[in-house]
Amino acid sequence: MTKQFTRSDIDALAQRYRANLINSLSGFKSATVVGTTDGKTNNLAIVSSVVHIGANPPLIGMIMRPHTVTRDTLSNIKQQGCYTLNHVSTEWVDKAHQTSARYAPDESEFDAVGLTPQFSESFPAPFVKESQIKLGLHVAQHFTLLNETEMVIGEVHELYLPENIIDEDGYADIEQAKTACISGLDSYHSTTRIAQFSYAKPDVKLTKK
Amino acid sequence: MTKQFTRSDIDALAQRYRANLINSLSGFKSATVVGTTDGKTNNLAIVSSVVHIGANPPLIGMIMRPHTVTRDTLSNIKQQGCYTLNHVSTEWVDKAHQTSARYAPDESEFDAVGLTPQFSESFPAPFVKESQIKLGLHVAQHFTLLNETEMVIGEVHELYLPENIIDEDGYADIEQAKTACISGLDSYHSTTRIAQFSYAKPDVKLTKK
User: Fold this and answer.
1) A154-200 pLDDT per residue, tens
2) Do A4 and B175 touch (CB under 8 A)?
3) Within a 10 A sphere around the Cβ of B111, how many other Cβ atoms?
4) Cis before B66 (ω within 30)
5) Kind of pairing, strands B58-64 and B150-162?
6) Residues in CB range of B143: below 8 A, 6 or more apart
7) What is the spatial distance between Cα B199 and Cα B146, in angstroms, rounded to a whole number?
8) What residues are paired with B54 via a beta bridge?
9) Topology (CATH level 3) of domain A12-189
10) Are A61 and A139 in contact (CB under 8 A)?
11) Which fold would CATH assign to domain B23-188?
């Protein structure tokens, strides 16, 4: 049976129910932990709103809510101008989810959940040692959207990933690296490749790579 | 072996290689086809850049490239002010990918790939009949980002999904509905739930739902 919701049906839902429902509708989402520092405490926060903006220059965006548990992360990003994005592995989704607890600003989520901060000589924000795919970004654009959420777009300045997951054409097999994905607010998933397709052309039968 | 790329390493890559690599870094992405019309031709385009913006009001964003194959979609959205988002099923990822071919503006991707346009009495843009989860959106905000890509944020006005995938708390089990996800530019994946976690609190052991 198909259930239909009109806009007024959605508006009439209880707040938590609506949050769970609407958060499910944007499809599967990337599972990423954001590493920042205020110069003293290393902060780590899970986000599921990472989005590709462009490859040249390499730009990645994310949506942040300024008045929620990620406010320390956002404040560090504003203060320092840089942050790391680290893929969450299917092997430690529990630790990644636990970073969403409301720890005190001077308490490091790294310590609290059992993940290890790792620094490069050339980057001031902490990477996650346990992550297979890690990016260091500088803020390139930052603005407020119509509902008072904020969009942060970062330019990739450093990148670490396992050499053996990079295909000849540059595709990085994030499934082989055990990157997890998220649905809704709290469901974590592993993936199984169905197919990788060639470039699509009109009137040409699609082929698998 | 970990491979490191500095920013100048990334800038020195061949264009196609860089596109494949950088598109892999934002993690798993939602697989969605966007339905639009210019009043005559029903247009359908796959996007992997859908992102949750907020639940109250229900807002969903997506990133579009104005000078690529999605330019007809973007033009229809600007002209009509509305569009549909339809979850891609693991059962027809090939048809979804084929919508990325560069068809003529007066050729419908629905017909070309073998998907069925479906209209509701109260919504002017075409839904995809074969999709389990369908949203009708009105444009709420539209602007250009630093790299000349465009962000379209839509407000959900209609929503259709199978009643039996909605949990008591509002979470919609999109895995049960066979929603696919994407990595890179052309790899399609099914998912397997690892865990769904309770709300995280400091110093409280995480429990599964």
Assistant:
1) 999 999 999 999 999 999 999 999 999 999 999 999 999 999 999 99
2) no
3) 14
4) no
5) antiparallel
6) B150, B151
7) 36
8) B59
9) Pnp Oxidase; Chain A (2.30.110)
10) no
11) Pnp Oxidase; Chain A (2.30.110)
Here the tokens at position A27 are 């499809």
Q: Does A43 touch chain B (CB under 8 A)?
A: no
B186, B97 contact by CB (below 8 A)? yes
Closest CA to B90 of B181, B183, B164: B181
Residue A142 near residue A152 (C-beta atoms within 8 A)? yes
- Rounded to whole angstroms, what are the CA distances from B12 to A58, A143, A157, B7? 12, 30, 13, 9
The H-or-E segment that residue A80 falls in is: helix A71-80
Tokens 């990157």 correspond to what residue?
A179
Name B172's bridge partners.
B166
Q: Does A21 touch chain B (CB under 8 A)?
A: yes
- Number of C-beta neighbours around residue A62 at 10 A: 26
Sequential DSSP letters for B121-174 = TTEEEEEETT-SSEEEEEEEEEEE-TTS-EEEEEEEEEEEEEGGGB-TTS-B-T
A180: contact with B, CB 8 A cutoff: yes
- Chain A residues in contact with B181 by the CB 8 A cut-off are 27-28, 181, 191
Q: Tell me if B201 sits within 8 A of B191, measured CB to CB.
A: no
* Omega prior to B57 cis, within 30 of 0: yes
Q: Which residues of B58-85 are buried (b: 16+ CB within 10 A; e: fewer)?
A: bbbbbbbbeeebbebbbebbeebebbbb
Give the tens place of pLDDT for each residue, B76-120: 999 999 999 999 999 999 999 999 999 999 999 999 999 999 999
pTM of the model: 0.97
ipTM of the complex: 0.97
